From TrEMBL:
Chain positions covered by the region annotation Disordered: 68-87, 488-514, 727-794
Descriptive protein name: Uncharacterized protein
Classification via Pfam families: DUF6049
Top-level taxon in the UniProt lineage: Bacteria
Transmembrane stretches, start-end: 696-716
Annotated GO biological process: carbohydrate metabolic process
Keyword Transmembrane among record annotations: yes
Keywords: Membrane, Transmembrane, Transmembrane helix
Biased composition (Acidic residues): 732-742
Signal peptide: none
Keyword Transmembrane helix tagged: yes
């Protein structure tokens, strides 16, 4: 076994190294002699004996280091290592013991990466074992059974030399029936940062602490005065509840020196939950939200946590800058959404958190940049782009400071990729979390020891850390901030730091953008759908008396449609966009024309009513209703082929608009009613109906004239008949009187008077009543419709 002094960077005393080498030689001589006399190990037989472990692989026993404290020890500390060992083989392990072994110092960051990839390789170097009294023994390890261990050793016993990062291996040694000699059967390597005293030059470290989430709010709001918002799910309530992901991010972050990076959409969503809100269920119905108290508590904790700290606000909804640059710039209006998302910060972050955030920073997904991304990122006002060192790479033997000019007045703030990705993956197991923490600290210390110059380093972790990832981040950051080689720095100060003249300032070409990230982008069809929705919104809002009730929720929804959180969730993204567009279509259809049946027009002129219905809660105006005749030679609307009238309808009401028409010929004429906005754009679907013209013709006039002539003739006949009757009566009276006078000359009564007495006739000369005389009264005109179809006013 190699001595620790054989490895570069170890500085144990010469006397101690000589004693250990001599002891190892004396101890190993008998063992070597015994090994030379042993026959070669036989292969595994049918009884199930184990074959020797292949070189370069994991051992038959797995070792998990669940805890290492302190994570960065100082002189006088006691290092505590705990975990479990599990026998994964088929044979029991006897005379087992777990010990700690200190390996060589790791002087380069790449050597840390290499060791992390082979942390459980039993064939690799494990370093020198610490004094045997600092070990834990097991008489027997049964297959499949995990056994805990806990070892404490003074830091002074580890014989750590100069400042640096050391390999610390936890090894399980023992025997099996197939291989009855002491050997390493399992190992787990980790990193031990050693900086016992204050460094002469400390690294300035900026740690971005992201508060973002997925999209939760829809464009839908209630029809009440408060416009009760509707959430697509209740997941946000779980995230901000005690123990939830966002609750942990706030609780852990409030005690750290960090830069808060916040999506305003998250704040707006939680703020909406402090009042009445609805949650849409899987069946499409909505139920009242019940997390008002939780939302208020979370916001209060966040307000307290960010007080006096640097806050960087992303554009509203955290737009996917790379998707916009690669697929959206050629779609009209896409860049304007980014500007609107940036402007929306002023109405959210200061109002809710009572702090003024910085909007100078743009953060593309995973810090991957190309010229088009930088151009889009700065188009809305930001002049600093957060990149990552695996995108904007340097060909240097050391890590330069984060800030560097990339042209056009833009500063690229290059986050360290090794430290930024240290907490990715599943960290729910304690062993995985411990490895992540120790690796992060090792990278940080090694970076600081590369040169004697002070540098500014930025850490930009994943946008939405899980609870376990956040806990690991907080543990590592707490150690870093209390350690001896690093000091905290705000992101704005890191961006202002003097750039390293040797650092790369050339943004990689678009062809270098990772295909794995490109495959997750929002496609052009998505931006086209957003543009289509915006066009419908523009046509709709001009008719509203209160545009803000519609423009604001839909504007924010379209910002959410471009969110970086949709990466890897393409199906969900399409469903959200469809939902927004469908809801807008439903509102737009609330103002429409009522369908009409066939209309009958009798006479040369009449009025045709067309009804506009408004099912919205607010009134509509700035609308023109146009009625057009498809056959103006038969039917005119007004004085031409069409006529327009202004329309204003109160919320929840309908209004009929009447148009004057004139007919020139009989038959059917097709008429189209269409609403237009004041700028001449069609609004809604047209309504088409037929008008049946039954004009008064010459034949009808002849019939009417004949009837009038008959009435005149009848009157003339009555007149002549009455005249003749009167003359005849006079003749009869004269003859009778003459006869009476002749028979009785003494009678003084005139013959005519006697005739009147006998007949009862009056003094006026009237003839008998004729059948053609009109009746004194006529019946009321019937109000029933004369036939099928719709009649119009005349």
């Amino acid at each position: 076994m190699a001595d620790a002094a054989d490895f570069q960077g170890t500085s144990a005393s010469p006397a101690r190294r000589w004693l250990r080498r001599t002891g190892a030689l004396l101890t190993g001589a008998p063992l070597l002699a015994g090994l030379l006399q042993l026959p070669a190990a036989a292969p595994a037989d049918a009884a199930g004996q184990e074959a020797p472990q292949a070189a370069g692989g994991a051992g038959s026993v797995s070792v998990a280091v669940d805890s290492l404290s302190p994570t960065a020890p100082a002189e006088g500390d006691t290092v505590n290592v705990s975990g479990t060992v599990t026998n994964n083989g088929k044979q029991a392990v006897t005379d087992a013991h777990v010990d700690l072994r200190v390996g060589p110092s790791l002087d380069t960051r790449s050597s840390i990466d290499a060791l992390a990839k082979k942390s459980d390789d039993v064939q690799g170097p494990t370093g020198e074992a610490v004094d045997g009294k600092y070990s834990e023994k097991f008489a027997k390890l049964t297959p499949g059974v995990a056994e805990p261990f806990n070892i404490s050793v003074p830091a002074d016993e580890l014989d750590l030399g100069r400042d640096g990062v050391y390999q610390l291996a936890v090894a399980l040694s023992g025997e099996t029936s197939a291989q009855p000699w002491d050997q390493v059967l399992g190992v787990q390597r980790t990193f031990l940062p050693w900086q016992p005293e204050e460094a002469g030059t400390k690294t300035k470290t900026t740690f971005m602490w992201p508060l973002t989430s997925t999209v939760h709010m829809t464009a839908e709001t209630g029809s009440n005065e408060q416009q009760t918002p509707v959430f697509r799910d209740d997941d946000l309530a779980e995230e901000i509840a005690p123990g939830g992901r966002l609750d942990q991010m706030v609780s852990l972050g409030k005690g750290l020196d960090i830069t808060w990076v916040i999506d305003p959409d998250l704040l707006a969503s939680v703020d909406a939950m402090t009042r009445n809100y609805e949650v849409r269920g899987e069946d499409g119905t909505t139920i009242p939200g019940r997390s008002q108290a939780v939302a208020k508590q979370w916001l209060a904790q966040l307000q307290q946590a960010v007080t006096g700290k640097e806050v960087v606000a992303l554009p509203f909804g955290d737009p996917d800058l790379a998707s916009l640059a690669h697929n959206g710039t050629n779609v009209t209006g896409s860049l304007s959404h980014l500007k609107e998302a940036t402007d929306a910060v002023d109405n959210t972050v200061p109002t809710i958190l009572h702090v003024k955030p910085s909007t100078d920073f743009a953060w593309p997904a995973d810090g991957a940049v190309d010229p088009s991304i930088v151009k889009v990122a700065t188009s809305a006002g930001a002049d600093k782009v957060i990149a990552r060192s695996d995108s904007l790479q340097d060909n240097l033997s050391y890590t330069p400071s984060a800030a560097r000019p990339v042209g056009g007045g833009t500063t690229a703030v290059v986050a360290d990729s090794r430290m930024s990705t240290a907490f990715q993956g599943n960290l729910t197991k304690a062993s995985a979390s411990t490895r992540a923490v120790q690796r992060f600290l090792a990278q940080s210390l090694t970076l600081g020891l590369q040169s004697g110059k002070q540098r500014s380093v930025v850490v930009a972790p994943q946008r939405m850390p899980s609870v376990s990832q956040a806990q690991a981040m907080a543990e590592a950051l707490a150690t870093l901030q209390s350690g001896n080689w690093s000091e905290s720095q705000d992101l704005a100060d890191a961006a202002k730091a003097k750039p390293d003249p040797a650092a790369n300032t050339k943004v990689p070409p678009t062809s270098a953008y990772p295909s794995s990230l490109r495959n997750q982008e929002l496609l052009r069809a998505g931006f086209e759908q957003i543009a289509r929705t915006q066009g419908k919104l523009d046509s709709f809002k001009v008719i509203l008396t209160d545009q803000s009730r519609v423009v604001t929720p839909f504007g924010r929804a379209m910002n959410r449609e471009m969110s970086t959180s949709w990466r890897g969730r393409g199906v969900d993204a399409v469903g959200y966009r469809d939902g927004v567009e469908s809801y807008l279509a439903g509102l737009t259809d609330g103002v429409k024309l009522i369908e009409k049946s066939e209309t009958k027009l009798s006479g040369r002129s009449a009025t045709i009513p067309v009804t506009v219905q408004n099912n919205l809660v607010q009134g509509v105006e700035h609308l023109e209703l146009r009625l057009t005749s498809k056959n103006p030679t038969r039917l005119k609307i007004g004085d031409a082929a069409y006529e327009e009238q202004h329309v204003t309808v109160n919320g929840g009401h309908s209004q009929s608009v009447k148009f004057t028409t004139s007919a020139n010929a009989n038959g059917r004429a097709e008429v189209v009613a269409q609403l237009y906005t004041e700028d001449g754009q069609k609004y809604g679907a047209p309504v088409t109906f037929d008008v049946k013209v039954t004009e008064v013709t010459a034949t009808v006039m002849l019939v009417i004239g004949g009837g009038v002539l008959l009435l005149v003739l009848a009157g003339f006949r009555m007149y002549t008949q009455r005249k003749r009757a009167a003359a005849h009566e006079a003749d009869q009276d004269g003859t009778a009187e003459a006869d009476d006078n002749a028979d009785n000359p003494q009678n003084p009564e005139a013959p005519g008077d006697r005739l009147k007495q006998e007949t009862g006739a009056g003094s006026r000369a009237e003839g008998p009543e004729q059948p053609s005389d009109p009746a004194p009264d006529t019946a009321a005109e019937s109000a029933d419709p004369s036939g099928t179809g719709e009649r119009v006013d005349r």
